[in-house]
Each structure stands twice: as C-alpha cells, then as structure tokens.
Amino acid sequence: MWILRFSLLAAGLSSYLSIAFAAGGDVAFRGTLLEPPPCTINSGNNITVDFGVKVGVKKVDGVNYMQDINYDLVCEPNTHSWVLKLKLTGNSTSFDNAAVQTNISNLGIKILRDGQPFVLGSEITTTPASKPQLKAVPVQKPGVLLTEGAFEAAVTLQADYQ
Asked: Which interval of the chain is the signal sequence (predicted)?
C-alpha cells in the first residue's frame, strides 16, 4: 500500500514539475528581400557555332572540327557577394552527358569548358571577369557509322546570381 501511494505521489509530482518548468516564448522573424543584379549573355542574341559543310562522317572523333563558342557575359555590379552560376541545358545524347543531341541520330555536339566536359544540366561557379572558355566539338556514338546530312542542335546557356 505504501508503495502504491508513493508511486501515485511520484507520478503526480513529476506531472506537476513538468508543468512548473515548461516555458514559452514568441519568435519574431524579419529580413530583407533583394533582387540579384541581372546578367546578359551575348546581349541577349543567339550564339551560332558553324562547323561548315565539310564535316566528314568518318572523321568525327571528339577532336576534329572543334570550334570556340564566342560569347559575352555582362552583369551589373555585384554589391552583395552573390555567387554567379553558369548553366547549360539541353537534350543530352545517350552516349555522352556533355553532348547535346543533334537531329542526326548517334551524332552529338560535346561542350567543353576550359578543356573539360561541361555536363548538361550542371552548374559552375564563375565571375564575369573570368568566364570559362567554351568549345564545341562533334562526337558520335562509338561503333556506329554516321549518315550524311545537315545537322543542327541547340542548348541554352544561362547565367544567374544566387
């Protein structure tokens, strides 16, 4: 009986103590919304890379026919230490995630940034003053013979402060 009373007393006391030591307080939130400074690539104009009309179906190897992607990157002054991200989006080939699919099956255009593959959908950190050098080169699916024909492909190059 004594144990039962002690247990009930202890249970009631612990309930009282948890109520007695509970505390509450308000939380206030505040901040400032900022718009990152705008950037433009190539003054908003399309960038064209022309491989010409003499791309040999047996010479596409990821080295031959490499072309520079000439573009300008202009951003308004960055006064809040925003990080500038450059992103390339498009439909990648099934055989190389850094190559955009052309209208000819098994032929893609691989994009390189400073000599390294620029994987479609990935972001890189950069600055307007030290933008990466971009190059494009035709590539083909290994072990496949390409067919003749005019080819084209498109990607979107986007610069945003984050």
From this structure: 1-22
Its pTM stands at 0.78
CB distance 126 to 84 below 8 Å: yes
Q: Is 110 exposed, middle or buried (0-12, 13-18, 19+ CB in 10 A)?
A: buried
Q: For the chain, which domains are there?
A: 54-161 (2.60.40.1090)
The residue length of the chain stands at 162
Tens digit of each residue's pLDDT (9 = 90 or more) over 69-120: 999 999 888 777 788 999 999 999 999 999 999 999 999 999 999 999 999 9
Contact 151, 53 (CB under 8 A): no
φ/ψ (deg, to 5) at 74: -125, 125
Structural contact between residues 42 and 89, judged by C-beta atoms closer than 8 angstroms: no
